Amino acid sequence: MKKFTLIGLLVGTLAVGMIIGGYAGARLASRAFGMLAYSKPEIDTAAHAAYLAEWLAELRLGETKTAISEMENDLNIQVQTLASWDEMIWLDEKTRQARDRWLVPVKVYRLSYPASGSDLAGANQLLSTIPGRNPKSTCKSGVCRLDDQRLAALNTNTNSP
What we know:
Layout: H1 2-37, H2 41-60, H3 64-88, H4 93-112, H5 121-128, H6 142-153
Helix pairs in contact: 2-3, 3-5, 4-6
């Protein structure tokens, strides 16, 4: 009988140890993956500043194709991220309208230089819901001037000065 008690005690201790160890391992893993998934805004802002510095350096060195390619890649990542969030997170109407106003230049740019790839389906879907450029407003931005060149090639009237 003492032998069964000793074996039972050892098995019970092992089971409790495995449960506590599993719980502690899960907590540590969730914290580690949480740090990977959600970086702090300060780190994101610093990383974006580093990207901008690299692109500016490439532009000053005359490496425009490389800079444009990297900037368009970053643009694709940003819009795809917004598309992923749009599927998961409900936005109130005021926030959605503000986001959509900022995405109008992205949509206008993508009319001249479309993004392709199966991984950008969500981004293209999101941009399809964004209103286009207002044909009655005068626009002097680089995106509008680029769009005017596209429209001029299509023999369409433009509205920029």
